[in-house]
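Colleagues,

Please find the record for the four-part complex below.
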Amino acid sequence: MHDDIKIKEECGVFGIAENTSCDVASQVYFALYALQHRGQESCGIAVNDRGVITHYRDLGLVYEVFNPERLASLGSGKMAIGHVRYSTTGNVKRHNAQPLVVKHIKGPLALCHNGNITNAYELRRRFEMNGAIFHGTNDTEVIAYLITNARLESDSIEGAVEKAMYDLKGAYSLVVMSAQKLIAARDPIGFRPLCIGRTQSGGYVVASESCALDSIGAKFVRDVDPGEIVVIKDGEIKSIRTHCVNKKPHICVFEYVYIARPDSVIEGASVHEARLRAGEFLAKSHPVEADVVIGVPDSGLDAALGYSRASGIPYGVGFIKNRYVGRSFIQPTQVMRDNAVRIKLNVLKAVVDGKRVIMIDDSIVRGTTSARIVKLLRNAGATEVHVRVSSPPFTNPCYFGVDIDSKEKLIACRRTLDEICKDIGADSLEYLSLEDVRKIADTENCDFCDGCFTGDYPCEVPKQMSKSKFETKIQEQLEFN
Amino acid sequence: MHDDIKIKEECGVFGIAENTSCDVASQVYFALYALQHRGQESCGIAVNDRGVITHYRDLGLVYEVFNPERLASLGSGKMAIGHVRYSTTGNVKRHNAQPLVVKHIKGPLALCHNGNITNAYELRRRFEMNGAIFHGTNDTEVIAYLITNARLESDSIEGAVEKAMYDLKGAYSLVVMSAQKLIAARDPIGFRPLCIGRTQSGGYVVASESCALDSIGAKFVRDVDPGEIVVIKDGEIKSIRTHCVNKKPHICVFEYVYIARPDSVIEGASVHEARLRAGEFLAKSHPVEADVVIGVPDSGLDAALGYSRASGIPYGVGFIKNRYVGRSFIQPTQVMRDNAVRIKLNVLKAVVDGKRVIMIDDSIVRGTTSARIVKLLRNAGATEVHVRVSSPPFTNPCYFGVDIDSKEKLIACRRTLDEICKDIGADSLEYLSLEDVRKIADTENCDFCDGCFTGDYPCEVPKQMSKSKFETKIQEQLEFN
Amino acid sequence: MHDDIKIKEECGVFGIAENTSCDVASQVYFALYALQHRGQESCGIAVNDRGVITHYRDLGLVYEVFNPERLASLGSGKMAIGHVRYSTTGNVKRHNAQPLVVKHIKGPLALCHNGNITNAYELRRRFEMNGAIFHGTNDTEVIAYLITNARLESDSIEGAVEKAMYDLKGAYSLVVMSAQKLIAARDPIGFRPLCIGRTQSGGYVVASESCALDSIGAKFVRDVDPGEIVVIKDGEIKSIRTHCVNKKPHICVFEYVYIARPDSVIEGASVHEARLRAGEFLAKSHPVEADVVIGVPDSGLDAALGYSRASGIPYGVGFIKNRYVGRSFIQPTQVMRDNAVRIKLNVLKAVVDGKRVIMIDDSIVRGTTSARIVKLLRNAGATEVHVRVSSPPFTNPCYFGVDIDSKEKLIACRRTLDEICKDIGADSLEYLSLEDVRKIADTENCDFCDGCFTGDYPCEVPKQMSKSKFETKIQEQLEFN
Amino acid sequence: MHDDIKIKEECGVFGIAENTSCDVASQVYFALYALQHRGQESCGIAVNDRGVITHYRDLGLVYEVFNPERLASLGSGKMAIGHVRYSTTGNVKRHNAQPLVVKHIKGPLALCHNGNITNAYELRRRFEMNGAIFHGTNDTEVIAYLITNARLESDSIEGAVEKAMYDLKGAYSLVVMSAQKLIAARDPIGFRPLCIGRTQSGGYVVASESCALDSIGAKFVRDVDPGEIVVIKDGEIKSIRTHCVNKKPHICVFEYVYIARPDSVIEGASVHEARLRAGEFLAKSHPVEADVVIGVPDSGLDAALGYSRASGIPYGVGFIKNRYVGRSFIQPTQVMRDNAVRIKLNVLKAVVDGKRVIMIDDSIVRGTTSARIVKLLRNAGATEVHVRVSSPPFTNPCYFGVDIDSKEKLIACRRTLDEICKDIGADSLEYLSLEDVRKIADTENCDFCDGCFTGDYPCEVPKQMSKSKFETKIQEQLEFN
């Protein structure tokens, strides 16, 4: 239940390379629909028709930005890429929407990525010192410069990407489209997911999550390896593995807990099953006598089912989420402030009245929303409310693509478990343990990054803080010339 | 799963009468959000500020029609009413949106209703024979004429409503706002729900469903009785019971099966629990060996949980529904046609692969969508698919406010159970029995109308067919003068 | 120069009846473009396809309300009518836009008119006393009721119109479209213009002004006579002359001075030439030594040319009007207030610098705009500014379709000629005389209504005041039942 | 009358530097309104608030792109710049709209210009060879790179502009805004106008035309000299004259004939008077007996007045131009094709019927529109139509900012005078002579570029052709890497 709190997923990327010219724009459109949960701020599509790239991007959800005319205006082609970007009230600018489409010495280039380049500021300064100009503040423009500069000394665009990756630090699942090639690359740590599929007509697609493949009827082939560069041209796929230094990716564990869609399979593990297991682990480590287990929609539902299965306590539908509350929803004001949660989430009194309730949520950030939800349950007659959280407490920032609140806002940084329990008005409160969260994904294929829980990251972290501060810094570095 | 088939819920109504002037428009706005599932075609709000009624209505969802400026333009007042109207591709006209706001000899009048007046055509002719003009084709305009004509011989607006009800046949849950009064009335059969609540500040509200009360923090008081007229003025509520001939309403059983929101309580019975019970009954009457029970989102989920509980077969999350597929969604064309369902609904392969699956849906109309969904499950590896439907087969039209397909389109009118089973590709297919559907609502308070399943209706039915045909008739009756 | 003052033209009407079904909507669209100057508040088109009338109307200019999709949605047909409505900040409501489309006992009816029914309030009360309901506050709905009620006792729709006209008082140029007929009628006084034309394909059109005929290549046939009812059906035109009591219309003289487009010909007189003559008369009766004659765009230009011709003083282009200042123009605030006029109107310094200037405007209402314009001229170096007004002073209200300011706002009611001259900062000020204004239209075909200048009207005037007050009265007459 | 033919004015620029923070965005808004005639494709505003630049730009007219919210979102500041861009059906892309706002090593930079950089392609290649990336295809991005690169070796932004100008060839009236400075520069030839003014509060403004100064009440100070760089900071203005090699600008003579607004004064000469003189010259060199002289609105009106004055033949208003035909105007189709001109332009029959008419237009490009207009006059009864054109025939391309048709489309390149006269159906046709067009601007301050008439240009011209071809070239130069 993160609607009004400060966790933002990063982005979702998608690319397609068919063997004949067709309506690739629609394919990207449907794929972006499936990836919409990864970013609701802005989106864009770039279509490549024999080397000429036409694109459109804007603030808004996929269905808001693209109507039939808009989609048709992108024309046909063999290749296309698309992007959804995360929602934030901060630096939401149209010129930061992606894909970024630029022209350089070797022709046009379209790029988009999911992740966070930790040395973006240094790289940017380096280019600026050479006279480079930047139109926006997103990392993608830095990546574009790295590639176009590398291209001057490389024989091919993939060679340029390979070269550029020596300079890039941090997390990136990158999709690049040149006049003739579709290229996908994943950082050597493998923070963010990226997978390959084949369309029904034999083309290739790359996507942040496998659910995007399903949406267009494409078959999952495999995940892109950490550090791997995949090059698709003329129906052929090849792989550059120079940067494949880690055998296994250290994938962000929060992808399984919250970010990814349950029907996606990441590194061989079903996200849905990972959440079921999180619930099962919670049931085993933090049992409590109760009459019903309910989940906070949508991301707490799977874990609640898992808890129910492992504990034998019946699973119940505790809340109805209003499916029509969209971006344009007018926030309740003054008097109705307290009812804010109630409009989005209504308690099923029949399910909780007179019951001891176990409520599963995927995380607690500031605690205010949890407090409101617990209160709703009590008002509906719940005699006890035991909160179980399907992830460990957030205590550290993420440098690799998830925009968690600042430390001073994170309740787990300020308050003890007991205090939080009291703050949110619960009868008991327990988190999933670190050991358990590392086991939720049933896969041997990968390790995890769980730095947000532990403060231990799989690579060096930057000294400057969060992305938003970085952006501020860029705006403030004006030398008033 | 009725997205692309031809069952349309009717409408949702809401009215509020506060004791002091305040932002009643926002209250209606939030209430309509909660009632949005009852009608997605159009919506409207009328605000009464000391006898002056300002209104706005248009095609679209609540959040599309009302932005902050639009809402603010309605001003403040003590009273307001609102309406959501069902979605159809047929006679969708802005001038049919409600509330209807008219001026008559005694001042302004705003009206909206949920239901279907079966003698609307005759009434309309009667007025036309007197020189009356009609702007639209909806029943509400006929009701308005009845009331304004009755008003000429009545002392009060409620007297006029009482008088008008002698002429009205069919189903109606009606809300009327005059310069000084808020009036709610329900037809003597009681086909459609209508309830009364109190706001936190002591005002009164009336709503189609109790979930609308919850959304604004109002307390449920009681259902309006069949035939009852409730009059609210200056903080006082009174009741006119002249038409209260039936002790119990014959409420539409399909409200429990599909139409109403699970968190609503109608005639004392929880809709959610009714659906759980439907699933339990199915489990008892139509058991089958299987590994997992899944529901078709959203309305099949509760019944699936009920089936699981009663059968002991594990409940599973079989599908992920894309929450972002809205009205503006661009339909897939040509090539992608077969994938249409897939974009809205993705199977959780991990849940069904290699499993014998029981799939619960609330109804089968034409069968085409069911066939596609069964196919999705098989493609995902389900070894068996047993379909259980939480209502009896549709075999008859509804004259009282639900727009079911024509008989020739209803698969149950054309095909036997076995044939349907084969058509949709299931291993077995069973429906809830008539006896069982009549028991799903755990209440002594009401009887049911189940004419769509039985052909037996609690009152006389008109000879002309469906509402859409009625509208056609109006348009065709031109005498080419 | 009436941009920010309170004279509003009424409306423009148009109707077309072709012999075969075609894109009549586009023809109306282009005709409304030509009539746009008669009303910028709202517009609408109704198309008749074999008796089925489809319509759309909304607030906004023709090009804002109708895009290609909207126009296409109206379909094809043999007949159509359209309307533009005047701009006011007062009771601008979408439901007051026209054409009004209603259904009555004999089928559908679409109506629109230009004018003002002086006994609308009484008629409305009469219908309300019979139970009638009204959706809006415009006169057209009253006319519709009159016709539909008369229709009950008439053999034909034209018979009903004929009968209705016995009850209608005031000014109306009316267009009515029934399932099979297009009917145009003009009040017996003939306040507002209405003419007949033939299209290139042999169909008939009726329009407020002949410029609408030109815009679609139709040929002018003749004016509709005062009191005449013209009926067009199946390519035949017939005339009902029961109400033709006046030989000549008393047409509003302000149509020639300001309202009509210069390229229109009304009652045989060119509007452009009428304005030239107004200028010539001014030159003869109010000569002054000067170096240049300029007009205030757009309506003062022709009179300035006439003044120049008659006086021999060179005609000059004194102002450039910004052609891009549209409805959505953001009004300058605070600081820039004084510059308001300057943005819309820039002085050509080269033309007036060091010159004695005669400036012709068509009227002075409040005087504030005139004062600003005179100041602009002086700032640009004009040594003398002599203002000549091509109409007599406004001293009385108009009851017949022009919304002039209230008397207390009219500068000519409060101040002497000398005072006004001083108020606006002119060196001299003269108005066109009453005798002269009656001679500006070079035609024997008509008399004039010049009640706004004289207080003498060609028929009885109502006791209640302006239309806006009438509307207020309707809203206030609530009996709080 | 260039509505549907292929002459496009280039752009309009504006910049303001006030001494205190205020609503500079509104000032730019009103100034762009006054410059709208220089470009209707797109527009944009960038506001500088203490070094932080916020901007918005989009396709559309000023009033379409900027509503009050949009304008308010730009905030307050001391400095701002704005731009309007020309209308073309070709490469109309949102990302080509201006001002261009970029970030470089020394902070933010906003730029916009009017003109055409003839060596843009070579410069672009040079930067691309260094790894530069380009987002759009407009010249401004090349200028930005030149400045940011020069900035690395300059002490100041104005030094960088000075340095950059050594590389820039062609026509440019440039406005640059850095964190602290507003800079205006004009190419050493001085093709396009650029002037300086002072606001009422003592700030400075720069604008393409003086009419923009008038619109906000600013006083004209002087024109920017050819080659001059004007730097405004903290209320001080200074001038860098390194590039001031030409004493007089060679200003585009077509600015006087057609592009500029009549109320602008360029290089000391009134545009309105220049057009009057063009008409006078025509009257002297190409007299003809006639009854009336009329102009084609809007740009032919002044010359017609001049012709009338010099010839003694009465000036008449021959056409009424529909002021409401805007960008969104739906083009007439099929049947109505021939009437296309008629909707925009109606003949005043009263003025031309039975008359020998002299019709003045500012230019003839393809001849098709002229033919239609002549036909309109004949249909309205003109007995003779003598066409006089207030500029010499177009026979050569413009490399300096006006997008004239390709040679094969220019009628004067293909046909003799007599043939053209016949083509357009005139009784006689004459053009203004080269000698005369060079004298229309009554000023000693400047020479002219009249290359479009003569093929002689005041500087070297590029080998590649028009701008649109250049853009195509960029798109085609893909090396398909």
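The longest helix of chain D spans residues 271-285.

Comments are welcome before we finalize the supplementary table.
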